[in-house]
């Protein structure tokens, strides 16, 4: 007979019996002789009691990421506070793989606020939205109608942000859950920046803020409303780099925007 095996078997039986007694409510062992427990040093609870407590503890209530985002965003009293709230937000795992929080660029308080989709590689490295190849095209597009992110005249300046402040892996599309978590922050961002007009740059931006499933090619150039402000969906510059013929439609949308600004100075 294997003595070690037999001892292990007896030990397992004894431990199982003890666990069963604890689960039945036993909380004290009665010895043959009385024990003055007041004279004993306090000892930590046995591991077995900790295990039983863990099993019987009430399950933790899962956090609601969107509700928490709404609460944090509403509490932000200015743009710096909003950036800090985003940085501390614990539920979006994209931040774990990102190098930088990409919050905004341009001049806060500008008449036109551009809301893009998500940072790419260059944006993640530099911590600013629209600085890669698509961003350079964006700058040229708005320069054609006399506007720029650093224009000294606030009437011609631009303020730029994205739906997501962190780069998705491999530049994949943001998931519906990620967009839902970030939407309260974007809406609060719009309130604090207080632009006259929004430009929804790209499919993800338009779908997230308008709540529509229509493609961007279908709704581009059509004035909508977001957060009580006129909003113009436009084709993303990255799309224009892949579809050169679509630049004609982008130019028409820019002229549409320019006319709206002139009509409502």
Would you spell out the secondary-structure blueprint of this structure?
Elements lengths: L2 H21 L23 H10 L8 H11 L3 H10 L5 H4 L7 E2 L5 E5 L4 H6 L6 H11 L14 E5 L13 H18 L3 E5 L1 H8 L5 H4 L4 E3 L2 E6 L2 H6 L4 H17 L2
Parallel strand pairs: 2-3, 2-4, 4-6
Antiparallel strand pairs: 1-3, 5-6
Helix pairs in contact: 3-4, 3-8
Fourth-level CATH superfamily of the domain at 99-263: Uracil-DNA glycosylase-like domain
What is the strand arrangement across the widest sheet? Answer: 1-3-2-4-6-5
Architecture (CATH level 2) name of the domain at 99-263 = 3-Layer(aba) Sandwich
The residue-averaged pLDDT reads 89
- Oligomer kind: single chain
Give a description of the structure.
The chain is α/β, with parallel strands linked by helices. The chain has a domain at 99-263: Uracil-DNA glycosylase-like domain (Uracil-DNA Glycosylase, subunit E). 48% of the residues lie in helices and 10% in strands. It has a 6-stranded mixed beta sheet, sandwiched between helices. Helix 3 (65-75) packs parallel to helix 8 (176-193). It is elongated. The chain starts with a helix and ends with a helix.
Short description:
The chain has twelve helices and six strands. It is of the alpha/beta class. A hairpin with a 2-residue loop joins strand 5 and strand 6 (229-234).
